[in-house]
Protein backbone atom coordinates (compact mmCIF):
# COMPACT_ATOMS: atom_id res chain seq x y z
CA UNK A 1 0.00 0.00 0.00
CA UNK A 2 2.79 2.40 0.91
CA UNK A 3 4.74 1.54 -2.26
CA UNK A 4 1.69 2.30 -4.41
CA UNK A 5 1.32 5.67 -2.72
CA UNK A 6 4.99 6.43 -3.32
CA UNK A 7 4.62 5.59 -7.04
CA UNK A 8 1.54 7.82 -7.30
CA UNK A 9 3.46 10.73 -5.73
CA UNK A 10 6.66 10.24 -7.79
CA UNK A 11 4.78 10.20 -11.12
CA UNK A 12 3.56 13.83 -10.83
CA UNK A 13 7.01 14.85 -9.62
CA UNK A 14 8.68 13.29 -12.67
CA UNK A 15 6.21 15.01 -15.00
CA UNK A 16 6.86 18.34 -13.29
CA UNK A 17 10.61 17.88 -13.52
CA UNK A 18 10.32 17.00 -17.22
CA UNK A 19 8.21 20.09 -17.87
CA UNK A 20 10.71 22.24 -15.96
CA UNK A 21 13.61 20.80 -17.96
CA UNK A 22 11.74 21.49 -21.19
CA UNK A 23 11.07 25.06 -20.16
CA UNK A 24 14.72 25.46 -19.22
CA UNK A 25 15.81 24.13 -22.61
CA UNK A 26 13.45 26.52 -24.38
CA UNK A 27 14.74 29.40 -22.30
CA UNK A 28 18.36 28.41 -22.96
CA UNK A 29 17.68 28.16 -26.70
CA UNK A 30 16.00 31.58 -26.64
CA UNK A 31 19.00 33.07 -24.81
CA UNK A 32 21.39 31.43 -27.29
CA UNK A 33 19.36 32.79 -30.21
CA UNK A 34 19.36 36.21 -28.60
CA UNK A 35 23.13 36.05 -28.27
CA UNK A 36 23.48 34.98 -31.90
CA UNK A 37 21.22 37.81 -33.03
CA UNK A 38 23.21 40.28 -30.96
CA UNK A 39 26.48 38.94 -32.38
CA UNK A 40 25.12 39.16 -35.94
CA UNK A 41 23.91 42.70 -35.31
CA UNK A 42 27.29 43.64 -33.85
CA UNK A 43 29.07 42.10 -36.83
CA UNK A 44 26.80 43.95 -39.27
CA UNK A 45 27.40 47.20 -37.45
CA UNK A 46 31.16 46.60 -37.51
CA UNK A 47 31.04 45.90 -41.25
CA UNK A 48 29.08 49.10 -41.84
CA UNK A 49 31.58 51.05 -39.74
CA UNK A 50 34.47 49.62 -41.76
CA UNK A 51 32.71 50.41 -45.03
CA UNK A 52 31.99 53.93 -43.85
CA UNK A 53 35.61 54.36 -42.77
CA UNK A 54 36.81 53.02 -46.13
CA UNK A 55 34.57 55.49 -47.93
CA UNK A 56 35.94 58.36 -45.85
CA UNK A 57 39.50 57.17 -46.52
CA UNK A 58 38.76 57.01 -50.24
CA UNK A 59 37.25 60.48 -50.16
CA UNK A 60 40.26 61.79 -48.24
CA UNK A 61 42.60 60.16 -50.76
CA UNK A 62 40.67 61.62 -53.69
CA UNK A 63 40.47 65.13 -52.22
CA UNK A 64 43.87 65.47 -50.56
CA UNK A 65 46.14 63.26 -52.72
CA UNK A 66 44.58 62.45 -56.09
CA UNK A 67 42.82 65.78 -56.44
CA UNK A 68 45.75 68.21 -56.39
CA UNK A 69 48.36 65.77 -57.71
CA UNK A 70 46.52 63.84 -60.46
CA UNK A 71 42.96 64.92 -61.21
CA UNK A 72 43.47 68.68 -61.19
CA UNK A 73 46.60 68.65 -63.42
CA UNK A 74 44.88 66.34 -65.93
CA UNK A 75 41.77 68.50 -66.02
CA UNK A 76 43.91 71.62 -66.45
CA UNK A 77 45.86 69.90 -69.23
CA UNK A 78 42.69 69.04 -71.15
CA UNK A 79 41.22 72.51 -70.59
CA UNK A 80 44.46 74.13 -71.73
CA UNK A 81 44.39 72.08 -74.93
CA UNK A 82 40.82 73.28 -75.56
CA UNK A 83 41.53 76.95 -74.84
CA UNK A 84 41.47 79.38 -77.73
CA UNK A 85 41.56 83.14 -78.12
CA UNK A 86 37.74 83.26 -78.00
CA UNK A 87 37.01 80.58 -75.40
CA UNK A 88 36.64 76.83 -75.97
CA UNK A 89 38.32 75.82 -79.22
CA UNK A 90 40.07 72.91 -80.91
CA UNK A 91 42.57 75.27 -82.52
CA UNK A 92 45.45 73.69 -80.60
CA UNK A 93 44.63 70.24 -82.01
CA UNK A 94 44.31 71.74 -85.51
CA UNK A 95 47.72 73.35 -85.08
CA UNK A 96 49.23 70.16 -83.75
CA UNK A 97 47.90 67.83 -86.47
CA UNK A 98 48.13 70.49 -89.17
CA UNK A 99 51.85 70.93 -88.66
CA UNK A 100 53.66 69.21 -91.57
CA UNK A 101 56.32 67.94 -89.16
CA UNK A 102 53.79 66.21 -86.90
CA UNK A 103 53.40 63.21 -89.19
CA UNK A 104 57.18 62.73 -89.22
CA UNK A 105 57.33 63.10 -85.44
CA UNK A 106 54.63 60.48 -84.91
CA UNK A 107 56.28 58.18 -87.45
CA UNK A 108 59.65 58.51 -85.71
CA UNK A 109 58.03 57.89 -82.33
CA UNK A 110 56.28 54.73 -83.53
CA UNK A 111 59.40 53.49 -85.33
CA UNK A 112 61.57 53.84 -82.22
CA UNK A 113 58.76 52.43 -80.06
CA UNK A 114 58.29 49.24 -82.05
CA UNK A 115 62.00 48.72 -82.66
CA UNK A 116 63.03 49.29 -79.03
CA UNK A 117 60.10 47.62 -77.28
CA UNK A 118 60.02 44.74 -79.76
CA UNK A 119 63.72 43.94 -79.35
CA UNK A 120 63.52 44.47 -75.58
CA UNK A 121 60.56 42.05 -75.37
CA UNK A 122 62.35 39.38 -77.38
CA UNK A 123 65.50 39.80 -75.28
CA UNK A 124 63.49 39.71 -72.03
CA UNK A 125 61.64 36.52 -72.98
CA UNK A 126 64.92 34.90 -74.08
CA UNK A 127 66.63 35.83 -70.79
CA UNK A 128 63.68 34.58 -68.74
CA UNK A 129 63.67 31.29 -70.68
CA UNK A 130 67.37 30.74 -70.05
CA UNK A 131 67.12 31.65 -66.36
CA UNK A 132 64.11 29.38 -65.79
CA UNK A 133 64.64 26.36 -68.06
CA UNK A 134 68.45 26.37 -68.33
CA UNK A 135 69.65 27.56 -64.92
CA UNK A 136 73.38 28.01 -64.53
CA UNK A 137 75.65 28.86 -61.60
CA UNK A 138 74.91 32.45 -60.69
CA UNK A 139 71.47 32.50 -62.36
CA UNK A 140 69.83 33.57 -59.10
CA UNK A 141 72.27 36.47 -58.79
CA UNK A 142 71.53 37.52 -62.38
CA UNK A 143 67.80 37.46 -61.61
CA UNK A 144 68.31 39.64 -58.54
CA UNK A 145 70.43 42.08 -60.56
CA UNK A 146 67.74 42.36 -63.23
CA UNK A 147 65.17 43.07 -60.51
CA UNK A 148 67.45 45.77 -59.08
CA UNK A 149 68.16 47.14 -62.55
CA UNK A 150 64.58 48.36 -62.98
CA UNK A 151 65.16 50.78 -60.09
CA UNK A 152 67.88 52.63 -62.00
CA UNK A 153 66.97 55.92 -63.74
CA UNK A 154 66.94 55.58 -67.50
CA UNK A 155 69.34 58.45 -68.16
CA UNK A 156 71.95 56.63 -66.05
CA UNK A 157 71.94 53.82 -68.62
CA UNK A 158 72.39 56.39 -71.38
CA UNK A 159 75.41 57.94 -69.66
CA UNK A 160 76.87 54.48 -68.97
CA UNK A 161 76.68 53.64 -72.67
CA UNK A 162 78.36 56.95 -73.50
CA UNK A 163 81.22 56.21 -71.09
CA UNK A 164 81.64 52.75 -72.63
CA UNK A 165 80.73 52.97 -76.32
CA UNK A 166 80.83 56.68 -77.08
CA UNK A 167 83.43 58.11 -79.43
CA UNK A 168 85.55 58.86 -76.35
CA UNK A 169 84.37 55.87 -74.34
CA UNK A 170 86.71 53.29 -72.87
CA UNK A 171 85.72 50.51 -75.30
CA UNK A 172 86.00 52.77 -78.34
CA UNK A 173 89.39 54.15 -77.27
CA UNK A 174 90.59 50.62 -76.49
CA UNK A 175 89.63 49.39 -79.96
CA UNK A 176 91.27 52.41 -81.54
CA UNK A 177 94.56 51.72 -79.76
CA UNK A 178 94.34 47.97 -80.31
CA UNK A 179 93.89 48.22 -84.07
CA UNK A 180 95.91 51.46 -84.48
CA UNK A 181 93.00 53.37 -86.02
CA UNK A 182 93.04 57.06 -86.84
CA UNK A 183 89.58 57.68 -85.33
CA UNK A 184 87.46 55.91 -82.71
CA UNK A 185 85.54 53.08 -84.47
CA UNK A 186 82.34 53.50 -82.45
CA UNK A 187 80.29 56.59 -83.20
CA UNK A 188 76.62 55.62 -83.28
CA UNK A 189 75.19 56.48 -79.88
CA UNK A 190 73.87 59.95 -80.60
CA UNK A 191 71.04 58.97 -82.89
CA UNK A 192 68.52 56.26 -83.55
CA UNK A 193 71.02 53.44 -82.93
CA UNK A 194 72.03 54.70 -79.51
CA UNK A 195 68.45 55.39 -78.42
CA UNK A 196 67.28 51.92 -79.45
CA UNK A 197 70.28 50.26 -77.77
CA UNK A 198 69.76 52.15 -74.51
CA UNK A 199 66.01 51.46 -74.42
CA UNK A 200 66.53 47.75 -75.18
CA UNK A 201 69.11 47.47 -72.39
CA UNK A 202 66.96 49.37 -69.91
CA UNK A 203 63.50 47.90 -70.62
CA UNK A 204 64.33 44.23 -71.26
CA UNK A 205 64.37 43.49 -67.47
CA UNK A 206 60.79 44.77 -67.26
CA UNK A 207 59.78 41.81 -69.43
CA UNK A 208 61.86 39.24 -67.53
CA UNK A 209 59.94 39.42 -64.24
CA UNK A 210 56.39 38.83 -65.59
CA UNK A 211 57.68 36.11 -67.90
CA UNK A 212 59.41 34.31 -65.03
CA UNK A 213 56.22 34.54 -62.97
CA UNK A 214 54.26 33.06 -65.87
CA UNK A 215 56.76 30.23 -66.30
CA UNK A 216 56.50 29.42 -62.59
CA UNK A 217 52.79 28.64 -63.02
CA UNK A 218 53.38 26.03 -65.73
CA UNK A 219 52.62 22.40 -65.07
CA UNK A 220 55.99 20.75 -65.60
CA UNK A 221 54.27 17.40 -66.16
CA UNK A 222 52.89 18.68 -69.47
CA UNK A 223 56.38 19.62 -70.62
CA UNK A 224 57.79 16.24 -69.58
CA UNK A 225 54.90 14.47 -71.32
CA UNK A 226 55.55 16.37 -74.54
CA UNK A 227 59.24 15.49 -74.39
CA UNK A 228 58.48 11.85 -73.69
CA UNK A 229 56.31 11.79 -76.83
CA UNK A 230 59.27 12.87 -78.93
CA UNK A 231 58.76 16.65 -79.17
CA UNK A 232 61.98 18.62 -79.53
CA UNK A 233 62.76 21.86 -77.75
CA UNK A 234 61.25 24.09 -80.44
CA UNK A 235 58.00 22.13 -80.51
CA UNK A 236 57.76 22.15 -76.72
CA UNK A 237 58.36 25.92 -76.67
CA UNK A 238 55.77 26.78 -79.33
CA UNK A 239 53.20 24.04 -78.72
CA UNK A 240 53.21 23.75 -74.92
CA UNK A 241 55.02 26.58 -73.14
CA UNK A 242 53.95 29.56 -75.27
CA UNK A 243 50.19 28.79 -75.32
CA UNK A 244 50.19 28.38 -71.54
CA UNK A 245 52.49 31.28 -70.63
CA UNK A 246 51.35 33.84 -73.19
CA UNK A 247 49.30 36.00 -70.75
CA UNK A 248 52.38 36.75 -68.65
CA UNK A 249 54.56 37.28 -71.71
CA UNK A 250 51.93 39.55 -73.26
CA UNK A 251 51.57 41.54 -70.02
CA UNK A 252 55.33 42.10 -69.83
CA UNK A 253 55.48 43.06 -73.51
CA UNK A 254 52.63 45.57 -73.22
CA UNK A 255 54.23 47.05 -70.09
CA UNK A 256 57.49 47.41 -72.03
CA UNK A 257 55.68 49.21 -74.87
CA UNK A 258 53.93 51.49 -72.37
CA UNK A 259 57.14 52.49 -70.60
CA UNK A 260 59.07 52.91 -73.85
CA UNK A 261 56.35 55.15 -75.26
CA UNK A 262 56.72 57.52 -72.30
CA UNK A 263 60.53 57.45 -72.24
CA UNK A 264 62.14 60.89 -72.16
CA UNK A 265 65.46 60.71 -70.32
CA UNK A 266 67.23 58.51 -72.88
CA UNK A 267 65.88 60.62 -75.74
CA UNK A 268 67.07 63.79 -74.05
CA UNK A 269 70.60 62.42 -73.56
CA UNK A 270 71.16 60.42 -76.75
CA UNK A 271 68.70 61.97 -79.19
CA UNK A 272 70.25 64.22 -81.78
CA UNK A 273 68.75 67.44 -83.13
CA UNK A 274 67.28 65.50 -86.04
CA UNK A 275 65.66 62.83 -83.86
CA UNK A 276 62.40 64.44 -82.77
CA UNK A 277 59.89 62.18 -81.08
CA UNK A 278 56.53 63.02 -79.55
CA UNK A 279 57.81 63.64 -75.98
CA UNK A 280 60.64 65.80 -77.31
CA UNK A 281 58.22 67.73 -79.56
CA UNK A 282 55.90 68.40 -76.63
CA UNK A 283 58.81 69.55 -74.49
CA UNK A 284 60.07 71.81 -77.29
CA UNK A 285 56.62 73.34 -77.86
CA UNK A 286 56.27 74.14 -74.16
CA UNK A 287 59.78 75.41 -73.39
CA UNK A 288 61.17 76.74 -76.67
CA UNK A 289 58.14 77.87 -78.66
CA UNK A 290 56.16 78.76 -75.52
CA UNK A 291 53.05 77.39 -77.26
CA UNK A 292 51.38 75.80 -74.25
CA UNK A 293 48.01 74.95 -75.91
CA UNK A 294 49.72 73.02 -78.73
CA UNK A 295 51.99 71.28 -76.23
CA UNK A 296 48.93 70.39 -74.15
CA UNK A 297 47.18 68.99 -77.24
CA UNK A 298 50.17 66.77 -77.97
CA UNK A 299 50.30 65.70 -74.32
CA UNK A 300 46.60 64.74 -74.42
CA UNK A 301 47.20 62.66 -77.56
CA UNK A 302 50.11 60.91 -75.88
CA UNK A 303 48.05 60.43 -72.72
CA UNK A 304 45.31 58.71 -74.70
CA UNK A 305 47.87 56.39 -76.29
CA UNK A 306 49.30 55.54 -72.87
CA UNK A 307 45.87 54.94 -71.32
CA UNK A 308 44.95 52.63 -74.21
CA UNK A 309 48.07 50.56 -73.64
CA UNK A 310 47.45 50.55 -69.90
CA UNK A 311 43.86 49.34 -70.36
CA UNK A 312 45.14 46.53 -72.59
CA UNK A 313 47.79 45.68 -69.97
CA UNK A 314 45.16 45.51 -67.23
CA UNK A 315 42.95 43.24 -69.30
CA UNK A 316 45.79 40.83 -70.11
CA UNK A 317 47.06 40.88 -66.52
CA UNK A 318 43.55 40.15 -65.23
CA UNK A 319 43.34 37.16 -67.54
CA UNK A 320 46.71 35.95 -66.26
CA UNK A 321 45.58 36.20 -62.64
CA UNK A 322 42.32 34.43 -63.49
CA UNK A 323 44.24 31.63 -65.17
CA UNK A 324 46.52 31.33 -62.15
CA UNK A 325 43.47 31.08 -59.86
CA UNK A 326 41.91 28.39 -62.01
CA UNK A 327 45.18 26.50 -62.08
CA UNK A 328 45.25 26.38 -58.30
From TrEMBL:
Which terms are listed as keywords in the entry? Cell membrane, Membrane, Transmembrane, Transmembrane helix, Transport
Segments crossing the lipid bilayer: 58-75, 110-133, 145-166, 186-208, 292-313
Q: Would I find Hydrolase among this entry's keywords? A: no
Single GO biological process annotation from the record? transmembrane transport
* Biased composition range(s): Polar residues: 1-11
Q: Where in the cell is it found?
A: Cell membrane
Q: Which residues form the ABC transmembrane type-1 domain?
A: 106-313
Query: What is the top-level taxon of the source organism?
Result: Bacteria
- Which Pfam families did the record assign? BPD_transp_1
What is the membrane topology noted in the UniProt record heading this document?
Multi-pass membrane protein
State a GO cellular component annotated for this protein. Answer: plasma membrane
Q: Where is this region: Disordered?
A: 1-29
Similarity remark: Belongs to the binding-protein-dependent transport system permease family.
Give the protein name, as stated in the record. 2-aminoethylphosphonate transport system permease protein
| Native organism | Paraburkholderia fungorum
Q: What is the lineage of its organism?
A: Bacteria, Pseudomonadati, Pseudomonadota, Betaproteobacteria, Burkholderiales
